[in-house]
Amino acid sequence: MRKLWAQITGLGILAFLLLPGMAQAAGPAAAPLVIVADTRRFTGWEAWWTNLYNESHFYFTLVTVVTIPIVGLIFGVLADIIMGGIGLDLKSRELAEH
What we know:
Layout: H1 2-23, H2 45-55, H3 57-85
């Protein structure tokens, strides 16, 4: 088992070292790739979100990293309220099998 993990680790390190060279195989004549989002059909918060993506990937990442846990918390609380309303009590650990 130890030999298998050594081989897997070795292949991972080898891939990590060789992939940048393969990515530059196009040569120095290749133009840099520009990634943008199409904002023509968006309005409101969607337009703001896509413009943020186009203007700064760093700020887009920060807003996304902050937004995802907040939305998860809101959905979790709403799911808890709904399940409590239909009679599912997840706060107690009583087993039905006696």
